[in-house]
Amino acid sequence: MILDNILLLVYRNVVAAIDKIFLIWQVAFPLVYIFVAGYSYSALIGHQGVKLGALSITYTSFLTAGMIGFNVMNGSTVAGNIIWNDKRNGMFQQLLVMPFSKVQYIIGNLITIILIGLANAALIIVIGLPILAKDVNITLWSIPYTICALVVGSIFFGSFSIILSTRIRSSEGYNVISNGLFLFFAFLSSAFYPAEGLPAPLSAAFYINPLTYIVDISRAGIFSQINRLINIELIIISFLAIAVFFIATRSMIQMKV
Amino acid sequence: MLSKYQNENCIAVYNLRKQYSKDNTYAVDGITFDVKYGTVFGFLGPNGAGKTTTLKILTTLLTPSSGSICIFGKDLVKNQSEIKKQMGVVSQNPSFEANLTVERALDLYGMLWGLRDKKMRKHKVNEILNVFDLESIRNVKNDDLSIGQRRRVQVAREFMHEMDLLFLDEPTVGLDPSARRLLLDYIKLHVKSGLTVFFTTHIMEEAEYLCDEIAIIHKGKIIAFDTPTGLKQKYGRGAKTIELTFKDMLDDSFINLLNTTISKKNIKDDGSNIQNSPVDVKGTHTIRARVNNTEEIISEILQLVYKNGLQIESIDINPPSLEEVFLSVVSTGMN
């Protein structure tokens, strides 16, 4: 029954609550980065490539894999947007007087963004395959790391969006703060450039940013570069995701209807 | 402690309280009432009286500070999810799926309520579209509807699923008279087949038309509870409204005379006058007054009319309306 309810809420999110144009933009946005920024920066970097574990890969490959993790964060704003739209259109209250609970609602939202994240990642991999083809090395052992990074990343950033949407009282305020924070997360992460070789304070900033962990793990899965650091990053981000999920659930339960 | 009649009643509320802050003020202050199965229970009160808080508690959106609520003989706090499956709620605030057409939104709503069979859902959607006169807007997106149309869809949507108890919070706000009547009659039809309705409204004619029992809440407390007729008898205290239409145009001096005459005779139980100027002038030929000494006052008026050489076209004597009773009950805060 509980699972039934959650699946119904996921179905409802997909059918009614998500803006289809936003979904298209979700895929188009990283592709713009890959094909415009990727090739432009590659011209600056030259042919030396980027070091990733034992490998040396092209910057476009590095960025394409980074965009998969980055897109998880970007897509997680959907969770907050669903809550805002449901509050604005009265559907949040209506769903709660139906046989759905707040916890089911929050889990439904998170599963929705996990599905969006996985579908987007698959699309980016397919579209970016000509770029990745030279360096990609997906194995049965490594791919679960990428999938795990996407799921854990969706839970972390989705819960984070939910906390923001329950605490901030205006939708404009929510948009400004979430966009500002996510921009900060994006550019202080290893999504666009490697953390190695950066000045120490900047490198430290990279490693207090959860997006760095998500990007590192998903990238390691795509290029089969699993090592001890990746496993530690996976453990840390998993604990963080669980903690943020509980805070989000608590915020949602305390939210006035 | 639960009401001793909890098993005979669809809703049994006992000593319910809700406190939002710790300043000793209660939005709902120890209310107790029962709602019988298969009846329409009207819950009336001025703005800020505690209606919405009570409704939010009964529909599980708020938890009570104290007291007990039994719905279908089960404790609401302990059996929320089970009870919610048998309930429908039309909130005062609009709620809609902005991106969906009316037809698709109804279909999705049915699906969310567990109506899994696509054919059955389609059949139900068509029935609802037909009953609520929504055929012409079936392919229009909810976002593009007028406020009234959106409201109609919101109310109609609730009948997509089977339920035993329906909460209606001012459901006719924004509806045109024909849609309003259509809805009230449709509710009556369902009540006949066993549906119990908890109904709040500010439109007293609706309450009178639909409700079997009415509770009036004021400042968090229930100050009157009876059938519509019982309320009128209990709180109207024999007061009636008389309306006289004259063949001649009325002048100020005659109206002053009427005011003085009616005031003298219109005495409350404690000996004070009901109103200093009881006469309400409608147009140039008609007056209206609320009186509690009808026969004597009519006789006095007739003498005045004769003395002033006027002619009466018609006299109407009516019992007080529910609206008058409501205003009287709320203004005096009587218990």
Describe this structure in words.
The complex is a heterodimer of chains A (257) and B (335). Chain A has 257 residues and is mainly alpha-helical. Chain A is 77% helix and 2% strand. Chain A has eleven helices and two strands; from the N terminus they run ααββααααααααα. Chain A has a two-stranded antiparallel sheet. The longest helix of chain A is centred in the first third of the chain and has 30 residues, at 59-88. The radius of gyration of chain A is 18 Å and the shape is elongated. With 335 residues, chain B is α/β, with parallel strands linked by helices. Chain B is 36% helix and 24% strand. Chain B has eleven helices and 14 strands. Chain B has helices at residues 51-58, 80-84, 102-112, 118-131, 147-157, 177-192, 204-210, 228-236, 252-265, 294-307, 322-332; strands at residues 9-18, 28-36, 40-44, 66-71, 74-75, 87-90, 165-169, 196-200, 213-218, 221-226, 240-246, 279-282, 286-291, 312-318. In chain B, the strands form three sheets. Chain B has a six-stranded mixed sheet with strand order 6-7-8-3-9-10, sandwiched between helices. A four-stranded antiparallel sheet of chain B has the order 2-1-4-5, with helices on one face. The longest helix of chain B is centred in the middle third of the chain and has 16 residues, at 177-192. At the A-B interface, helix 1 and helix 4 of A face helix 3 of B.
Class by alpha and beta content of chain B: alpha/beta
* Coarse shape of chain B: globular
Question: Could you state the order of secondary-structure elements of chain B as H and E?
Answer: EEEHEEHEHHHEHEHEEHEHEEHEH
Q: What is the arithmetic mean of pLDDT of chain A?
A: 89
Unreliable stretches of chain A (pLDDT < 50, length at least 5) are: none
